[in-house]
Amino acid sequence: MDDQVPVLNHENYIVVVRHILDWYSGANYGNAIVQTRQFYAENDPDTSELVSTNPVHWQYVYACELPGGSAVVDIVFPENTGIVREYDLVFDACDWNSARYDGSSRYTVSSLGNEIWQHEGLTVTDADGLVTTVTGTVRESFSGCGYGDYQEWAVESVNYTEGGNVVTTELSAVNTHFGYGADCAQNRAVLGGSFTLVSPVTSGNLLDIDTPLIFENTGSSDRLFQAGNLRIRAADGSRIELNADNGESRSVTVSITIDGATDNFSEPWSTWQDSLVLDLDKGG
Q1: Is the pLDDT score of 271 beyond 90?
Q2: Residue 14, phi then psi, degrees to nearest 5
Q3: Is it true that the peptide bond before 55 is cis, omega within 30 degrees of 0?
Q4: How far apart are CA 13 and CA 1, in angstroms?
Q5: Which ranges of the chain does DSSP label H, i.e. alpha helix?
Q6: 252 C-beta neighbours (distance < 10 Å), count
Q7: How far, in Å, CA of 108 to CA of 61, rounded?
């Protein structure tokens, strides 16, 4: 008889689901995602150069806090593109704000206030030796009509790691989106997408996460979803599924599968409501 505890089980399903939803909402991502753009805002350049006037293109060169590092920021103001400005940040062993930055990021702001970060091998090492790396696109979106309070955290083709000498958290092939609010005067809420995850929450075991049916409310920004399916699978065959289409407005059906046997029960959405909130600052 195998006494090994299944990776996904009745004792950890609440914590695991919360952890997964916090990735969908952006809450678990570290400072590398949302704070690199602050380098430009909080520092004065050593030199500046007007590269071109059509489009307007400025280049700023910075000295970092310790000798030997460098940072270059190119700012372009494209015309007639719907983009207000683009920031290209290139770091080479640049120490700033108690961390070392390497790699590059592009930060784009649209005329509607939408913000996009595109990271290319960005690595941030903090004072405690925690290393965060990210490649891919992260988008903070607002109402496409320029009005309403809709917000969305969307991640496209992202690979992300955290750790010291040993990587402890790793996300691969991340393509997710989570948002809610009034979009073009139409209230809605949505959560969907897929990724693979290794993290301490499941003792380093690989999880496959996807939404075979996207969670979506139309006509309401409430995250008490009435339809949608979240599937979390481990290599040992254990599985957690959330099915919102259960005829109950304030709960979701949880299915836990272990050794081929499935247990179904109801769980109130309130169990995970704190993870279904977009706070686009709490990721960094």
Answers
A1: yes
A2: -65, -45
A3: yes
A4: 24
A5: 13-24, 31-34, 38-42
A6: 25
A7: 19
